[in-house]
Every structure is written in structure tokens, then in C-alpha cells.
Design brief:
mainly beta; 6 strands
């Protein structure tokens, strides 16, 4: 991640599973306390990183003309976002 502070914020994500060649595609995310969801307009890249006993599914996306990195922790079943 290119985030200066490497700050990751937990978010709620609406995702589509079983999407063509990509098994998961995030559609939008919502920050805690925010009224509206942020729509993901483009999926740039996906990758998996293994950390301890968890697989981290990482999605580089574009939303509101900004780049974000969404991470899904397969053990904790949580999503985090960081602005790239």
C-alpha cells in the first residue's frame, strides 16, 4: 500500500461472489458513521497475501475517482480500506 500512515479503517462492503473469473468483486463500501456507500467504479487488481493462518484478499479499486485498497481477512471475516 502506498498510504503514508498505512492506516486501515474497518468498513462494511457489499460484494458479489462468484463473478466470472474473479471469485469476489467488491461493489461498494461504507465507513462507520457515514450515511452513504461509496460505489466502486473500477476493479484494478486482485491478489492474495498469506499472513499467519489467514488469507488476505486484496483488491485495488477506484471509487469517486480515487484509488483505494480493500482487504478482506478470511479468518476474522472483516474488511478494511486504505486510500492508495
Amino acid at each position: 500500500m502506498k498510504n503514508i500512515n498505512n492506516y486501515k479503517e474497518q468498513v462494511e462492503v457489499m460484494a458479489l461472489f462468484g463473478y466470472e473469473m474473479t471469485p469476489c468483486r467488491p461493489l461498494s463500501f461504507k465507513r462507520k458513521g457515514e450515511k452513504y456507500e461509496v460505489e466502486v467504479t473500477e476493479l484494478l487488481q486482485t491478489r492474495i497475501r498469506f499472513a499467519k493462518n489467514a488469507a488476505m484478499h486484496i483488491f485495488d479499486v477506484v471509487a469517486n475517482k480515487k484509488r483505494y485498497t480493500l482487504e478482506f481477512n478470511s479468518v476474522e471475516l472483516t474488511w478494511h480500506v486504505a486510500q492508495a
